[in-house]
Amino acid sequence: MTPTAYALWFVVLLLLLWLAWTYNRLVAARNAVKEGWSGIDVQLKRRHDLVPMLVDAVGAYARHERGLLERVARLRSRNVPDLEEEAELSHELERLLAVAEAYPELKASANFLSLQRQLVEVEEALQLARRYYNGAVRIYNTLLESFPTLLVARRFGFTPARYFELPLATEARAPEVKW
Fold first, then answer.
1. How far is Cα 148 from Cα 98, in angstroms, rounded to an integer?
2. Range of the domain at 90
């Protein structure tokens, strides 16, 4: 073989190694996005598990808020979380906590305080999971849009991920929890 042929094979080998390395980076970034989403999913399920207990606790005191309680229960009953419905659930949970403020006996209830504290913990964990996920999405999407990585991403069908934007029930105002 001639020196030119060796140089050509060397360039082809380098190109193939770069292609494999780039593809593996894209796969790792995509898997980090999936991992981040699973963390959000766990926290959403935890929140959904708390909702019926909160509705029951508030419902015992606030019989005239039946419409609100039914909306929260309906939103919670969804098996597959939908981002629009999750945002609506966050809004309704905020309203539910505001209704609870009007009932001093409810606010003093150890059961309600425990549920409220758990909701705050779940919302904080959800916020951390959202930050991790959105960071993974940012890294992944940056890889997809960066040259020359975008050439590999397009060739192998990598698609951009969406950021997770969901208002948390405790974001607008932190519930008052007395220890």
1. 52
2. 12-155
* Tally of domains in the chain: 1
Please compute Rg for the chain using Cα positions: 24
Q: What is the pLDDT of residues 160-177, one digit of tens each?
A: 999 988 665 555 444 443
User: Which tens digits make up the pLDDT trace of 65-111?
Assistant: 556 666 666 666 665 556 677 777 777 778 777 777 777 776 677 77
Q: Is 35 domain-assigned?
A: yes
DSSP single-letter state for residue 162: P
- If phi > 0 it is left, if psi is from -120 to 50 it is alpha, else beta; for residue 136 that is alpha
- For residue 56, give the CATH number of its domain: 1.20.1440.20
